[in-house]
Design a protein that fits this description.
It is a single chain. This protein has 88 residues and is mainly alpha-helical. Helix content is 80%, strand content 0%. 0% of the residues are buried.
Length: 88
């Protein structure tokens, strides 16, 4: 008896098509976001590697600077003239 009162919903097909289109758009956006996320992860890893390389280079340069300072100090102490004596 309930089937006698059934009427076709004219908006159903339209809503179904809109829903399917929206789902397709969301899948596409999700794939794009996954791709962008992966790219950002790669860039982040590269930046971490570069940062570590710069830290190592800074440590190496600081060590060289320290050696140069030590050499300059020892050269300055060796090149100082002895105090003059009054017997000249």
């Amino acid at each position: 008896m309930s089937t006698l009162n059934w009427r076709r919903d004219p908006g159903y097909e339209l809503r179904k098509m809109q829903h399917e289109l929206r789902m397709k758009q969301l899948r596409s956006e999700t794939e794009q976001l996954k791709s962008e996320t992966e790219q950002l992860r790669k860039e982040s890893a590269q930046m971490r590697n570069e940062t570590e390389q710069l830290r190592q280079e800074n440590r190496r340069l600081a060590e060289l600077e320290s050696r140069m300072d030590a050499l300059l100090l020892s050269a300055d102490s060796c090149s100082q003239a002895p105090p003059a004596t009054g017997s000249n």
